[in-house]
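agent: user wants the full assembly modeled, not chains individually. Plan: 1) parse entity lines 2) check alphabet per entity 3) run joint structure prediction 4) return tokens. Steps 1-2 passed, two entities, 824 residues total. Proceeding.
--- entities ---
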Amino acid sequence: MKNKIQKKACTTLLAIFLACAYSCSDDIIERNEFEALNPTNTDDLAGNWKTFLLTAPNEFLLEAPIATNTPAFTREINEIKSYQTNISENQKKIIKYWSAGGVLRWNEIMRTLVARHNRPPYQNEDGTYPAPSAANPFANPQFPFSNPPYAARAYAYVSAAQYDAMVATWYYKKLYNRAAPFTVDATLQVLIPKSTMPSYPSEDGVLSGVTVELLKLLFPTEIAYIDGKAEEQKLYRIISGANVRSDIDAGIILGRKIATKFIARAGADGAGAAIGNQALWTQLETQTAATGETPWMSLDLPARPPMLPLFGKVKSFLMTPEMVVASRPVPPPSTKSEQFAKELAEIKDYGTNPSRKNMEIVAFWADGVGTYTPPGHWNAIAAEAFVEQNYSEVRWARNMALLNIAMMDAAISCWDAKYTYFNPRPSQLDPSIKTMTGVPNFPSYVSGHSTFSGAACVVLSHIIPAKAQNFINMEKEASDSRMFGCIHYRSDCEKGLELGEKVGGFAVARAIIDGAE
Amino acid sequence: MKKIYLIYLLAVPFFMNAQTDIDGIMMNKNNFCVGAIYQYSSWDEYWEGDFKRENLNLGTVSTRAIGLMGNYGISDKLNAIFSVPYIETNASAGTMKGQKGIQDLSLTLKYMPLEKTIGEATYSIYALGSFTTPLSNYSADYLPLSLGLKSKTVSLRLMGDYQRGNFFTTISGAYVKRANITIDRNAYLTDEMHYTNEVDMPDAISINFRAGYRSNRLIAEFIIDNWVTQSGGFDITKNNMPFPSNTMNALKYGINSKYTFKKIPELSLVGGYNYVAEGRNVGKSDTFYGGVFYVINFKKTSPQDEK
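--- prediction returned ---
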């Protein structure tokens, strides 16, 4: 009897362990496993769309391709066939990944790069902080620190360049009208949906050429990783039978040329000086104190210089410096006012026994250290919404550019307001206010999350009006999350949303006249 | 008499080496040992990967816990053990708000298939199966101040005990299998970005060695405990935030004691101390605990059971 019980106990133990162990190993399915892109509209007239920096779609010359009836072209088709006869599982995975769309995947890769580098420098022994240096990117701390303004600008540059490059691509596709390999050789297998557009130059080649050059500038320590992705994209087009090698090579050359224009602009847009210096940091403090207000103080220990105080001066794609000033929100409530006391009390209240739902909202939108930042969050939201729309690559690039440029403008305008008013966070004035997310190291007014979200919401609602209510709910929740987390006052959030929506309006105004609608 | 495997995280080294199920002691049939332990654990240094550092924005991170525990003798050779902790976390500096709440229920079946006395030495072998599950909807993605990692776990531990006179040695090893967890965000970075709110949690192996003096009245022992995260974890990168699926390794040393009253043999006191000597992505914590236990014999008090 006893023995039986013991045996049973023993087998039960083992059975429970094995059963649980087995049921624990569920594979996770992620949201970015997308179907192959199969545009409902090829946007064949996109060669006429309005570009950002290119003076004309043919500003950079692309040489005429070799004819499809030449032996050289046949050899290129043979290259595809030879890959296809020995296609590996890994190559199939590469095709599955990239066929979802080049603009989509490069935006996703950028979000990874931003998240990896979104880490504030670790202090020196003496309590000062080293600054990342573009000239010496591998030193400690590595360059860049992709904080929200840096990230917003990075997403915007890559997207603007991709868009101009796609317009040029569409222009040359029409101009040279070279047939796709599968049209020339009907026996050729095609492993992805066939496009009716001419195939020279390859849109994926151009995307890879232009993006790699910009990412080398923006994330110099990641060049090997970036090159690896670009190689995969190139291989995907050839193995899948969508392009011959000369489509791709020509595309890469064109993309690289277009990139030079954006790289030159990035070198002179003022971002490199946005960090400021000790004299400026002190001046911000004294000039605010002179108005009788309490100046912002870093709550980091040791105290850290304010994040990119001159980012408000960075050259926008859509706003003049006058427009930045004209959009600037009214001053925040004085820290001595009744209104301010009321707002401070409201935030303190959010911190006392926060509901689980509020904590969830704070965490969902936190997008802090080690994440792709708020502009990256909206970029991801947009990508998932765009996938459902089956855009052509050129329209993908255009919509992403409008979104990302609007968010860069949000960063510029928001940072302009923050360093104009330089006002303190709730926990600075009342240290008993404990926060549910990290306190960002820059002034409070207006909320960056709110500004980014307002701008993104306006642009996305214009692009996909059917989802407008959805985007409005999200912008509101993102904005509220900063109050629930106890790091922003209500004025910061409400005025931030307003500012973002105003700035997003500039991108919408452009969307109406860029030829795509 | 119990412990929770897991939860070393940056934050909460838990009831780790309190008088626990991983000792070579069984409750007799129908005896129920119930008690409570208070534990205080704190650290002001932690390992970011293998880089030991402090963080002035956290100051001292502390965890206070009260655990309710029980051990019932189903038979002389099979015990059922449970524990439920209530936890409060706090950072002495910076702005981050601490958390409090009920953490994970732990259930363990402890089975002793073999006990043999050869000469003056007694050898025994044990198998322990444990299951843990969160009892409240706390956020795991709030390290180092989260209440725990929120992963359901199962573990299987094999243990051998040797006693000669009043001196003993116990060694045991466990494999801890962890279930995926769900966090409040829907995208996160490990080495790559993941677009999901589910997190794949790495498993762990725990090795425990203890030796010392053991009599009916007094137990005094020292312990060495090594917790090693298996594949799938990753390091906290420079000046980054911790994440639930980080690799978390800890080598601990400590002492435990248990005193049973002579006049009231049902009542005992426990107390101990342990510290993390070497770690990876965990706090270098010091832990103190003390508790009281009482044994109820259901056979004596409920004669109906005999019928």
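agent: reporting back. Chain B touches chain A through 51 residues (CB under 8 Å). The CA atoms of residues 90 and 123 of chain B lie 44 Å apart.
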